[in-house]
Amino acid sequence: MTTLPERLSEKTVTECLDALDWDGLRDHLDALTLDEESAIKLVGIVLRSRRLVFRYPGKIKKRKAIIDGVISKVRADIGEDAADRASDRLAVFDLVDEGYAGIRKLIDDLPLAGLSQTEQVSAYMARIARDWDGIRQQMEAASASASVVISGVVLETEDGERYGADSATSMFVNLLGMNISLAAHRGKWFDEQDIVRMPALPVATEEQIGLAGTAHSTALAWQQWQLIEERCCYMDGGLLKRPAAEDEGLPEGAQIIEHSPRGIEWEMLDTVANERLGERLGQTFQEMSMKTNLLTKGEGIDPGADMPPSGYVSSIEMHSVVMLSEFLGLNVATHPADLGGLRLCEWMRGFAVLQQLVNDRLSNEADVLRRAFPPIALDELEAILERNGLVDGRAGVFIDHASYAKSSRDLYDAPILRGEGDTCLLVGAALSDALLIRLVLSTLANKGLVIEGKGEAFEEQFRAVLETEGLTAYYFEVRRNGEVYEYDAVVPWGKYLFVFECKNRSLSGTNPIASYNLLRSTAGHAQQVQRLAQALIDHPDILTSQIKEDCAGLEIVPVIVNSMPFAMQGDFDGVYFSDVASINRFFSERYSHFSRLHSVGPHKVLHRVRLHDLWGGENADADAFMRHLEDPLQLRIMIAHMQVEPLGIQIGDRLYASTNRVRRKETTMESVARVSGMTAEAIEAEMERFASSLAEVREKYEADNPPAP
User: Fold this and answer.
1) 701 confidence band (pLDDT: 50, 70, 90)
2) 486 and 585: one domain?
C-alpha cells in the first residue's frame, strides 16, 4: 500500500523544476491535498526557481505546462480565488521574458550590431579601459587631497554632478560582464565546464571604441532588469504592464512594466549592513595601519609568500584574514574545512594574488588596455599561485573557480577571462581596489559553499567581550518537558536579563537572492531567541538552577548578536538585533567621534572630534546599553544617508520599466553633524584649531628633516 506524503516537499518540487519535469511534479502534487499555507509555499518555490527564468530563448512550453499545472492544482484543492492569486503571481515570468526579449532587440539595433561578436567585445573592453583609467586618475587626485575620513572618494563631472568613485567602477565592471555574457551566449563561447572561452580579439578601431559607448545604456538596462526580476521573484514584488501617461514624457504608444517592490524596508536594512561592512573594513585598516606595522607585512608575489599566518602577499590580505577571522569567529589561516576543493585561506590567497598581479601591472604597464586587462599565460598564472602556497593542484582549482562562466553572477566573483588555449586576461577594475573579504564571501555564497564550524568560536569570543566589562555571561543547555534549550549568553545586568543569541551568517552583498536567504534566516533567528526567552518565563526554575544572581523581577530582553554588521533600530517582535562591532564600540569608549587624518612627513596623525555621548554618564550601564540597542548611532547615521529613489529604464521599442531602489546619499561633515545633534561649524572650528597647532609641528619636522638633494 502506497503511503501518501503528509505535506509538500520543497526538495522534490525544486528537483522537478530544475529538470523542467512537469510529470514528476504532477505525481508529487497528486499525492497530497494543498491547503492555503502549502499553496502559498508551492507558488513561492515556483517563483524562486532560476530554471524557469529565460534571459535567453528557452523552453517556454515546458515552463507553461508547469505553471498551468500548478494553477490547476491550486484551483482543484482550494478554489478559484486562490487560483487567480497564484495566476497573478506566476504571470511575472511572461513579463520578465518580454523585458529580456526587448533588451536583446535593442542590442541588435545598436551601431555595433553589424560587427562580429569578437569585434564588439574588443570595442567594449577598450572603452571600459579608457573610462576606468580616467576614473583612476581622478581617484588618485581626490585621494591625495582628501583628509576627512567618512566614506568613499567622491568625484565630480564637468557639469558639477557628484558621484562615488566606487559606484562608477562597479558600473564599469557590471556593464562589461553583461556585454561579455551576451556575446558568449550568442557566439556559444562556453566550454564543457560552461567557462567562457573568448576567441582571439581583434584590435578595436577608434570608431568602434566610440560606438561602444552606446552599448552602456543597454547593458545597464539588462543589469537593472535582472535585479528587478530577482527582486520580484524573491522579495514578493509585483509587475504590472500599463500604457504610459501623457505627462511621463515618453513616446506615443509607449508602455511601462511597473515594478512594485514589497520589501523595500528590508532592502534598506540589507543595504545599510553591507555599507557598514565596507566602512568598518576601511576604518579597521586605517587603525591597524597607524597602530601596527601592517603596511610592512606585504611580501608581494615574487618570489612568493608563505601561507597565512606565516606570510602575506599584501597588507590588504593580512587585514582581510584578521577581519574575516573576527567576523566568522574562527581562525581563517588554519581553518581546515574543504570549500569546493580549497581551504578558506586558499580562497583568500588566490584573490590576493590576482589583486597584487593587477596592481603590479598598473604600476609598470604604459598601455591603457593592458593595464585594465593584464594578459597572462595560464601556466604562468598557475606557477605564480603555486609559489604563493596553492600547491597540490589547488592553483588549477582556484583558476577554474575564478574564471568567468555561464553561472557567474559578475566579474567580481570571477575576474579571470579565459581565452582559447593557454591565455587569459585579468579584469583590473574588479580586482584593484576590491575588498578581499567581499570577494571571498560573495563567491562562496554564489557557489553554495557554506563555511561550517564557525558558531561556537564566535560565542566564546562574544562572552569574552562581556566578561571583560565585568559582566557574568552564563551559557548552558537544559531540558524541560522533552524540549532542549541552549543558551549562548544570559546576562543579568541592572534591571534587565539579556538573553543573547549569537549568529555569524554572511551578508548578502545586496544580491537579491542572498538577501532573501538572509531575511529567512533572520526571521528564524528571532523565533529561536523568542523561544529561549519564553522558556525562562514558563520554567523559572531554569534561572534559579543556572544563575547565581536573583533574576526575579528582571525584564527579559532577547537580543540577536551578529558577527557581521547587521543591526536594526528598535525591536522586531520584541527581539533586538545588534552586532558585535556595535557592542564593542559601545563598551570601548564613551564618545563617538568625527575624524580627520593629517600627515607629518611619513607619519599619520588622526584627529578626532567628539560627536555623541554614548553612555550619558561616566560609566556604561544597562540603561545606556538599552538605549544603544534601541537606536545605535552608527545605524542612525547610515539610515539617515539612505534614500529610496525612482529608476526608469528602456527595455524595448516603446517599452520601459520603472522601479524604486535604495541608494546611499553623499556623506558630509554637515550631514553627520546634523544626525549627531551638532553643527558642522563647531566641528570645523575644532578641526581648524588642531590643524593650526599641528602646522607648527609639521614645520619643525620639515626643518629637522630636509628633503634629500
Assistant:
1) confident
2) yes
3-state secondary structure of 496: strand
| Angle CA 289–290–294, to nearest 5 | 30
Q: What is the pLDDT of residue 147?
A: 39
Cell of 619: 560609566
Domain assignment of residue 271, given as a range? 266-446
Does one domain contain both 433 and 473? no
Residue 430 and residue 412 share a domain: yes
Q: Is the pLDDT of residue 564 over 50?
A: yes
- 8 Å CB contact between 430 and 358: no
How far apart are alpha carbons 381 and 328 in whole angstroms? 30
**For residue range 357-395, what is the model confidence (pLDDT) as tens digits?**
999 999 888 999 999 999 999 999 999 999 999 999 999
Residue carrying the nine cell digits 572630534: 609
Exposure string for 85-99, b = 16+ CB within 10 A, e = fewer: bbbebbebbebbbbb
Per cent of the chain over pLDDT 70 is 95
Q: Convert 214-236 to b/e letters by CB count within 10 Å (16 or more is b).
A: ebbebbebbbbbbbbbbbbbbbe
| Residue showing cell 531540558 | 479
245 found inside a domain: no
Q: What is the mean pLDDT of the chain?
A: 90
Answer with the one of 609, 631, 653 that is the final residue of a domain. Answer: 631
SS3 228: helix
Q: At which residue does the C-alpha cell 553589424 appear?
A: 114
The pLDDT of residue 219: 86
In a domain, 680, yes or no: no
Q: Which helix (H) or strand (E) holds 255?
A: strand 255-260
User: What whole-number distance in Å separates Cα of residue 443 and Cα of residue 374?
Assistant: 22
In the block, cell 544563575 appears at 547
Q: Is the pLDDT of residue 24 over 90?
A: yes
Which residues are within 8 A (CB) of 213 and not within 5 positions of it... i.e. 6 or more apart?
A: 127
Q: Are 462 and 589 in the same domain?
A: yes
CB of 383 closer than 8 Å to CB of 357? no
Do 436 and 371 belong together in one domain?
A: yes
For cell 525562562, the residue is 536
Domain boundary residue, one of 631, 650, 666: 631
Do 431 and 322 belong to one domain? yes
Q: Quick check: 596 pLDDT over 80?
A: no
How many domains, the chain? 3
Q: Are 529 and 501 in contact (CB under 8 A)?
A: yes
Whole-model pTM: value is 0.87
Instruction: Assess whether 305 and 362 both reside in one domain.
Output: yes
Residue 422 has pLDDT above 80, yes or no: yes
3-state secondary structure of 374: coil
Asked if residue 365 belongs to a domain, the reply is yes
Same-domain check for residues 396 and 479: no
Q: Using CA atoms, how far apart are residues 345 and 341, in angstroms rounded to an integer?
A: 12
Whether 527 is covered by a domain: the verdict is yes
